[in-house]
Specification:
- It contains 26 helices and 21 strands.
- By secondary structure, the protein is α+β, with helices and mostly antiparallel strands.
- The strands form five sheets. Strands 12, 13, 14, 15, 16 and 17 form a six-stranded antiparallel beta sheet that branches. It has a five-stranded mixed beta sheet with strand order 2-11-10-3-9.
- Strand 15 and strand 16 form a beta hairpin.
- The radius of gyration is 28 Å and the shape is globular.
- The structure holds 2-(butylsulfanyl)adenosine.
- The site of 2-(butylsulfanyl)adenosine (IVH) has 14 residues, from strand 3, strand 4 and strand 11.
Length: about 700
């Protein structure tokens, strides 16, 4: 190994280089090349070397910094209080050693005071930490961690997260004993932004269908979504937030004495706090919690990679102290990545909407990270070649940060003598047409666009999907039946379906048929961007479709555009432009668009869908207005919200983010209070709007 050959000086240099590189991949590119365990190993080796040879430790060592330098695309923000990282514990033994270090730091020799130490255990959410600043109850600054000292300004993107309050209302009933019923002038919050697993799976599915690169895990997806330049895109990604720190800097306000109290105070201010935290009375209680959640964590809709343990008594934090890298009063207990061996039963080849063929491993069912795994991704032909994977092989499957399990290696020692290398098909497994590989693409494709049943079905599935035409009641089984009965060959045929045809299909009731016809009729008036997306043009995702619909007010105009006209749009590259141009020049497509038009599908923008003129600082937020305001009439307030991409609704529900109240508000205020929705008065409403405008 290199460690033995290199002297300490060279090894420190090499480790420094490697750690900097992996931090850059992880924090800036969102594309880690190694897993956490391997990273920790490098980091710990450097720590040990620096301890042994203190003269080799420099101020620039990665052990003295947190994370990577921030990416330069966003405005940089210097944190008032640095965001530190955490040291890791991988076993009960390491937890005990951590407690012993606390005893030493506090000079705690007697058993009875040691026994009094309590610990708060919180699930370690695998997302990215963010710092939020509130001035007089209004969110005015929001940044990523960056390198711990300086982060990126992602305020508008953070504002699109439904569970992050943009303005605070204090809930008196939740205030811990002895705290003033008053909002602090300045409030700093720390917490984790994450992507729920269900949103992550849906997002990757959509990206896969658009043949765009997918995210390896929910953490990367959360980070990529939070660092979008257009907050409207972030708003669509359905991110979540759990708060875990609050700093009060007003000198006249009482400080929380314990971390548990800190979490309660966060709740009183309206922040979401992960509900499974506990107060453990001893380190054994902490160990129990870690053990218990090693299994239960898989039942949650967010990914956890460990447990964060913090000393409960905040008054002791200063005495226990911090290293430059992490506090000594907290530690992260990390769960190991989960792997399992199983047998490869078969490899099947799926044919997608655009004909791309993807290999999928069919496995003997095996329990892994709380679920039974039967399928794993094999990515493409190159991967199959690299692994030299064969039917009947014993394979190692891993689910670490990723949700979709992956075959990571083949146990060649267990390979049967008669096994044969896997042969990648030369013909489409569905329609038999010879596969093609275009240019430098990795994927093989079936060129039989209109005759391959799999492609036809996938295209219709895409057309009816939520972000496209959002047609309820038409699922993949019905689509299969419609195609098999030759009732539907292309998407325009959906609009020709009659009640009689639908009810002639097995198990289709009259009510369902009526509902389907109704949602088909409704879908005829979807915005142009949805139609462009729904067509399933290669490389055109939902955001690309929006850019195209912004520039071309009707499908006709887009169809007449040259590839150069399309490349002229900011955000649309030449590959997309070429693909759009070629798509609309197919006679089959032109005939189908004519059909859609004849069947009454609106193929142009409605002026009511027009894009807002201001920065979308309220994207994803729904407002309800009630009562009479002094300085604003209702329609002016509505315009202010809509111009910033917010929505206005007439009734209060769980989906409402803010209720803006004027004089004599009526029952909507009561409903908002009952549902715990943030209530803004006129001044707070103005502050919310203006805090957005100032910084745009
Ligand atoms: S406390 C100084 N609490 O884990 C304390 N971190 O490995 C630092 N994390 O950067 C953070 N859940 O991104 C804390 N309940 C929690 C957490 C948590 C997830 C993340 C956070 C942090 C990393 C440290």
């Amino acid at each position: 190994m290199q460690t033995e050959r290199l002297g300490p000086v060279e090894r420190v240099e090499e480790l420094t280089r490697q750690i900097e590189h992996h931090r850059f991949c992880y924090y800036v590119l969102n594309k880690p090349e190694i897993d956490d365990a391997k990273f920790d190993k490098l980091f710990n080796e450097l720590l040990e070397l620096e301890e042994r040879y203190p003269e080799l430790k420099t101020a620039n060592s990665p052990t003295q910094k947190v994370g990577a330098s921030p990416s330069t695309e966003f405005k940089q923000i210097r944190h008032r209080i640095p965001l530190l990282s955490l040291a890791n514990a991988m076993s009960d033994d390491e937890l005990k050693k951590w407690e012993e270090r606390i005893w030493r730091a506090l000079d705690m020799t007697d058993e009875s005071s040691r026994k009094k130490l309590e610990y708060v255990c919180e699930l370690k959410i695998d997302g990215l930490s963010c710092a939020l600043t509130y001035k007089n109850g209004v969110l005015v600054e929001g940044a990523t961690r960056g390198n711990g000292e300086v982060g990126e300004d992602v305020l508008y993107n953070l504002k699109t997260i439904a569970s992050i309050p943009a303005a605070l209302t204090l809930d008196k009933t939740k205030l811990p004993e002895g705290f003033q019923n008053k909002l602090p002038e300045l409030l700093e919050i720390r917490g984790e932004v994450f992507m729920p697993i269900t949103s992550f799976t849906a997002l990757n599915q959509a990206l896969l269908e658009d043949e765009q690169p997918t995210f390896a895990n929910p953490r990367n997806a959360a980070s990529g979504s939070l660092r979008q330049k257009d907050p409207r895109k972030t708003a669509k990604r359905k991110l979540g937030f759990w708060a875990y720190f609050l700093y009060l800097t007003d000198p006249d306000l009482r400080q929380p004495q314990t971390h548990f109290e800190n979490l309660e105070l966060l709740k009183a201010y309206g922040f979401p706090v992960e509900p499974n935290k506990v107060l453990a009375k001893s380190i054994e209680g902490v160990e129990d919690f870690c053990q218990q959640w090693s299994h239960k964590r898989h039942d949650l809709d967010y990914q956890t990679d460990g447990v964060v343990i913090k000393m409960n008594d905040r008054r002791l934090w200063d005495s226990v102290g911090v290293t430059s890298h992490s506090p000594r009063w907290a530690i992260a207990y990390k769960y190991p990545p989960e792997e399992a061996e199983t047998t490869l039963e078969d490899v099947k080849f799926d044919v997608g909407r655009t004909g791309a063929v993807t290999p999928v491993a069919w496995l003997s069912p095996v329990k892994l990270a709380g679920t039974t795994v039967k399928r794993a991704s094999l990515h493409n032909a190159e991967q199959i070649k690299r692994l030299d994977i064969r039917i009947g092989d014993t394979v190692l499957v891993r689910k670490a940060g990723e949700i979709i399990p992956e075959v990571i290696s083949v146990n060649v020692a267990k390979r049967k003598a008669n096994s044969e290398p896997l042969i990648y098909p030369t013909n489409c497994p569905v329609c038999g047409t010879q596969l093609e590989r275009v240019g430098s693409e990795v994927a093989f494709r079936c060129p039989n666009q209109y005759g391959c049943q799999s492609q036809v079905e996938r295209r219709i599935e895409h057309w009816v999907s939520r972000d496209a035409m959002d047609i309820d009641g038409v699922g993949s089984i019905l689509i299969q039946q419609l195609v098999a009965h030759q009732l539907v060959k292309q998407v325009s045929d959906l609009y020709k379906l009659t009640f009689e045809q639908l009810t002639s299909i097995e198990r289709m009731g009259k009510k369902s048929a009526d509902n389907i016809l109704e949602s088909l009729a409704k879908s005829k008036h979807r915005p142009l961007a949805n139609i462009i997306y729904a067509l399933g043009i290669r490389h055109v995702g939902a955001s690309g479709a929006e850019l195209l619909a912004d520039r071309f007010p009707s499908l006709d105009e887009l169809m007449r555009a040259s590839a150069e006209d399309i490349t002229g749009i900011e955000g649309i590259g030449p590959a997309i432009a070429q693909s759009v141009f070629e798509y609309f020049h197919q006679p089959e497509v032109q005939a189908m668009v004519d059909e859609l038009r004849k069947l009454g599908v609106r193929l142009q923008n409605d002026p009511a869908d027009a894009a807002p003129k201001l920065s979308p600082t309220l994207a994803g937020k729904t407002f309800v207005l009630t009562g009479t305001m002094e300085s604003l009439d209702r329609s002016a307030a509505e315009k202010m919200i809509k111009a910033r991409s917010g929505k206005v609704s007439s009734s209060v529900s769980k989906k409402t983010d803010y209720v803006v109240v004027g004089a004599s508000p009526g029952s909507k205020l009561a409903k908002a209070q009952e549902l715990g929705i943030t209530v803004l008065d006129e001044a707070q409403f103005r502050a919310l709007i203006e805090s957005g405008d100032e910084q745009s």
